[in-house]
Design a protein that fits this description.
This protein is mainly alpha-helical. It contains six helices and no strands. The chain is globular.
């Protein structure tokens, strides 16, 4: 399992290095969809887009845009995320953008071992990709 997780992480890092730059914040064209799908490769070691798959470390991300924070009924959220849900009740595009840019800065002590996505275009593409799932 560790080898698989390392390969997934490596694939995500490589994809982020070769990802094309996009200029549209809300584009949604084929290049951005491709970038968003590739950016999701950084997530799929721990998250799924299928709510029936509860065997992963993180909650399902389908329908995440606009969904209540910490709302997956079969997932045990950390106290940090539950506290964040009191301050930020919904995963808006803006909330997702801030969280994806700096997960530990937005939700200190969260259990997610992810350092964030610094590239704004990549975050936007990922959020747009997740919005279609």
């Amino acid at each position: 399992m560790k080898g698989t997780a390392a390969l997934v992480l490596a694939a995500g890092v490589i994809a982020s290095l070769v990802a094309p730059s996009i200029s549209s914040a809300r584009g949604g064209g084929p290049a951005e969809r491709n970038l968003g799908e590739r950016a999701f490769q950084k997530c799929y070691a721990c998250h799924t887009l299928d709510e029936s798959n509860v065997a992963l470390q993180g909650p399902a991300l389908n329908d995440i845009v606009g969904r209540a924070v910490a709302a997956e009924p079969d997932f045990s959220y950390s106290p940090a995320i539950l506290s964040y849900a009191q301050r930020q009740p919904r995963w808006t595009r803006e909330a997702l953008d801030a969280f994806l840019a700096d997960p530990q800065g937005v939700v200190p002590d969260n259990d997610m071992g992810f350092f964030g996505i610094s590239d704004e275009a990549e975050r936007t593409a990922l959020i747009n990709y997740l919005a279609t799932r």
